Amino acid sequence: MKYICKCCGEEKEDWPAIAYNSPYPYMNLSDEELENSELTSNLCIIRYSDETCYFIRVVLVQEVNDDCQDLEYGVWVSLSEKSFNEYVENYNNKSFESGCFGWFANYLPDYEFDEPIPTDVVINNNIGRPFIFPHESHEHLFVSDFYNGITKKEAEKRINLVLNK
Q1: Which helix (H) or strand (E) holds 54?
Q2: Do residues 95 and 137 make contact, with C-beta atoms less than 8 angstroms apart?
Q3: What's the superkingdom here (predicted)?
Q4: Is residue 101 part of a domain?
């Protein structure tokens, strides 16, 4: 969709969001684990033999320093059972607002993830999917880029990596 940008006055076309259909752990399940797990477009429950993991789909907005657009991601975070259940119980309640802790559960292009990244999950059902914000104190290039922004060239490179898979 083309439009005239209010920020710069130029004709723009929105970038597609980089979206993941499932959390990373779901992509690596055995056939037996898949049978014992659930996945919808917004919720995921993985039942391992020794634990159960809960995930929700969220939005992450990456600032692009030299452009009027930001890069959006449709990603997943793992939640505690309590936070997951509260979210599910209030899923259709448009006035529900809350916040909780979550672990980032996808791998993004151009980053190495050796350990999970802690996030704050901000839920406002009136505006749609929850948003996440990585903990600024966590030392990782992804977190640094989130708070310092990336270039338009980097954003377009990431989009092209996903579109050309």
Answers
A1: strand 52-62
A2: no
A3: Bacteria
A4: yes
CA distance 52 to 66: 42
The length of the chain, given as a count of residues: 165
Q: Is 26 domain-assigned?
A: yes
- How many DSSP H helices and E strands does the chain contain? 5, 10
Asked whether residue 39 is assigned to any structural domain, the reply reads: yes
Asked whether the whole model's pTM tops 0.90, one would answer: no
**Residues 45-60: tens digit of each pLDDT:** 999 999 999 999 999 9
74-115 pLDDT, tens digit per residue, is 999 999 999 999 999 999 999 999 999 999 999 887 788 888
Domain region containing 44: 15-163
Counted domains in the chain: 1
Q: Is residue 9 part of a domain?
A: no
Count of other CB atoms within 10 angstroms of residue 7? 9
Question: Do 62 and 145 contact (CB within 8 A), yes or no?
Answer: yes
